[in-house]
Amino acid sequence: VPRMPLTCSPVRLLLLLLLLLIALEIMVGAHSLCFNFTIKSWSRPGQPWCEAQVFMNKNLFLQYDSDSNMVKSLGLLGKKVNATSTWGELTQMLGEVGRDLRMLLLDIKPQIKTGGPSTLQVEMLCQREAERCTGASWQFTINGEKSLLLDAMNMTWTVINHEASKIKETWKKDRGLEKYFRKLSLGDCNHWLREFSGDWEAMPEPTVSPVNVSDVHGSSSSLLDTWIILGTFILFVLMGIFLIYIRWQKGEWQAGLWPLKMS
């Protein structure tokens, strides 16, 4: 009776397992850093016109406000960052970026259809996987309406709210502003993410409950969890197929030797 050849050999299964393990290692090593700024064109005395929050893998660990001009640390990661020289750099950067964003808000205020004070929410995100930067973006929300998205990797603008089309054209023509956005997200943000990743991986678990930054910038973590679960399931399936194949081969080999022994 001719044997039916199997489509998968042990070598192929082992290669698939190896590739899957490498992919899982890369996905587990993915990290993101997000700076969330809230800017007001006008604020009452004693109230900050700029507030900022910093998230590591969607976990809040730093807070800043323009009224005190100080950064507050949260959780174990925040305490670790507070003990490094990066703390002063972050405090200075948050203050400078807050002032720059407020100038942007004041410049575009005539184009915003509102009679009162205006607000500008800005989210700067950078991502790293396998020791390299894989994503950098800016999202701009004007008066509570998501308006513009800038992919800093290829400097591509996306208009979310058509009322912000003129603002996009104004900013796109400003090469210095685009260079500023790219430097902050691909340069400074990526640099700090690389530094914080080591401290994050050394932590047993997040000390602050995860906070949803936004649908656009927070989708990577939920997608990562899905891939990890799916990858683990595929891993077990491949291991089961491999074990069944080995047992089948062993049983066939023994069955083939038995007539020789009897003869």
From TrEMBL:
Known function = Binds and activates the KLRK1/NKG2D receptor, mediating natural killer cell cytotoxicity. Acts as a ligand for KLRK1.
Membrane topology per the entry is:
Lipid-anchor; GPI-anchor
**Name of the featured protein:** Retinoic acid early transcript 1E
Record key words, sorted: Cell membrane, Disulfide bond, Glycoprotein, GPI-anchor, Lipoprotein, Membrane, Signal, Transmembrane, Transmembrane helix
Where the protein is mainly located, per its record?
A: membrane
- Domain of life according to the entry: Eukaryota
Location of the Retinoic acid early-inducible protein domain = 30-196
For whether the record's keyword set contains Membrane, the answer is yes
Subcellular location, record wording: Cell membrane
Q: Which organism is it from?
A: Mandrillus leucophaeus (Drill)
Q: Name one GO cellular component term.
A: external side of plasma membrane
User: A GO molecular-function term, please?
Assistant: natural killer cell lectin-like receptor binding
What PANTHER family does the entry give? MHC CLASS I-RELATED, RETINOIC ACID EARLY TRANSCRIPT 1E
Q: Name one Pfam family in it.
A: MHC_I_2
Q: Signal peptide location in the record? A: 1-32
Could you tell me the Gene Ontology terms of the biological process aspect for this record? antigen processing and presentation of endogenous peptide antigen via MHC class I via ER pathway, TAP-independent; antigen processing and presentation of endogenous peptide antigen via MHC class Ib; immune response; positive regulation of T cell mediated cytotoxicity
Instruction: State the InterPro entries in the record.
Output: MHC_class-I_related, MHC_I-like_Ag-recog_sf, MHC_I/II-like_Ag-recog, RAE-1
Q: Give the protein family.
A: Belongs to the MHC class I family. Belongs to the NKG2D ligand family.
Transmembrane segment boundaries: 227-246
